[in-house]
Amino acid sequence: MNTLLALYNGIFGRLERQEWLLPTLARFVFAATLVGYFWKSGLTKLGDGIFGIFSPSTGAYAQIFPKAIEAVGYDASQLSFFHWLVVFGGTVAEFILPLLIIIGLLSRLSAIGMIGFVIVQTLTDLYGHHLIDDPKSVGAWFDRFPDSILMDQRTFWIFVLLVIVVKGGGPLSVDHILKKRFQE
Hints:
One of its GO terms (cellular component) is membrane. It contains ten helices and no strands. By secondary structure, the chain is mostly helical.
């Protein structure tokens, strides 16, 4: 039994000491599974032309402020500057924050920003798009069904981002390069 425990501790002890592994894998998993989702979503919010970022599509308002855009007959010009600012900021965040996480620049702050983004997105889905009325979409923890959009999927998203908040970007990041450069 002692031999088995020594073997177990030897193998997993080495793995435990690999400080680079978790933050690097968390950034990789985020890039492999979520970046495309957020960038595609960001693209749907762009208006026409090269400066489409500054004139978001009607769909952008429908995604972020579904009740407000419906109330004005889908005429975004009737919405306030506040609405434009939130839609513009959200669209920019969908492109910039994932990019910062991928390259590992301001990793912790970017991951916190993405967590906030996911929370706001979830609340909008629940109350703005009425998913609160759809138990299958909302789901529940510990229910043996791992496929709900909100409770299951978004929990995993936030967990991956929390690893980055706690561990940082890891050694294969711009953060690490800058830290080494300015510590010398």
